[in-house]
Amino acid sequence: xxxxxxxxxxxxxxxxxxxxxxxxxxxxxxxxxxxxxxxxxxxxxxxxxxxxxxxxxxxxxxxxxxxxxxxxxxxxxxxxxxxxxxxxxxxxxxxxxxxxxxxxxxxxxxxxxxxxxxxxxxxxxxxxxxxxxxxxxxxxxxxxxxxxxxxxxxxxxxxxxxxxxxxxxxxxxxxxxxxxxxxxxxxxxxxxxxxxxxxxxxx
Amino acid sequence: xxxxxxxxxxxxxxxxxxxxxxxxxxxxxxxxxxxxxxxxxxxxxxxxxxxxxxxxxxxxxxxxxxxxxxxxxxxxxxxxxxxxxxxxxxxxxxxxxxxxxxxxxxxxxxxxxxxxxxxxxxxxxxxxxxxxxxxxxxxxxxxxxxxxxxxxxxxxxxxxxxxxxxxxxxxxxxxxxxxxxxxxxxxxxxxxxxxxxxxxxxxxxxx
Lengths: 203, 207
What we know:
Chain B: It comes from Cellulomonas rhizosphaerae. Chain A has helices spanning 44-54, 111-116, 174-177, and strands at 3-7, 10-23, 27-39, 60-71, 77-90, 95-99, 102-108, 121-135, 140-144, 150-152, 157-170, 186-198. Chain A is mainly beta. Helices cover 9% and strands 57% of the residues of chain B. Chains A and B meet through strand 3 and strand 4 of A and strand 10 and strand 12 of B.
């Protein structure tokens, strides 16, 4: 079973005759015998259709073989999240690598994507395995519990696990119209039970 | 006279009458003591031909100087009689007692020429040798890969430098898939083999 270990801004993927899927072009070095092949986002024809409609641009490659692959992109911090028969939603451009036991699916994020100008889809990772996500600065995990909703800026939201419902709060008022706004037009509000991951930089 | 890391992006160098420090021009952040900065003239022509030149300055006198550049990560590499090959762009500072020379990467003739052109790396690297320390710039910090006989593949954009008796070779695996835009993004790789250390950065950004 491939093992992912995060070392600050570099991810070590130890392969033992199996494979991991990683962001296209994210290999910085490798030892051993490893092949790199383009992989589609997975999920077959239906998923491909959804990607086409949603404009989701996740492009992955498969790293197969035995050895250690060093993965990194744009000097972003790397965090490995362990999923055991679980589900996590991640902003697509923040996925660095996933192990074999996980499936990727595209999900429409509706209004949120439109307001934040990031396209209308996010990626859902389901199954058992490890998922490496990258963030501009160290990732921060914030808990959401019933009765304790969490509000975050859409530009810092990276990923979320657990059962949470998301809604959008608009901060637009007459002040925004006259140019005296705070720069916080929209916020994401999470309710339920789970963990939300944010990065300390706005995209 | 090893450089002292102030944080991951700034180093402090002690400067004495015997030990001057050469640094990238404009990389001084602050200093104390009695230090003067003098631009270094290049041997005319050399830099123009190889493209492997960088405006350097000498820090002389006595005191300590802080160096940093554009918020890039700084890695201090200590040389004890061995040599380090690194691109001139990446050198932040080094002890003046170290010898630098410009050389062709890999004695491969046409092959290395192709490599330089393909990877945008240029044909020449700077070789630093002697006893002293070098501060090397990188995007995202470097990590060393120790080699003792085996081969590692390195992304040309992420390659920072190497020291020791290493052979650097460009391998390409361009196939039909790359031509139709379905490549894995790893069409070109540097295959490094031998005994020594390769320095790799956590990003594919060149500067």
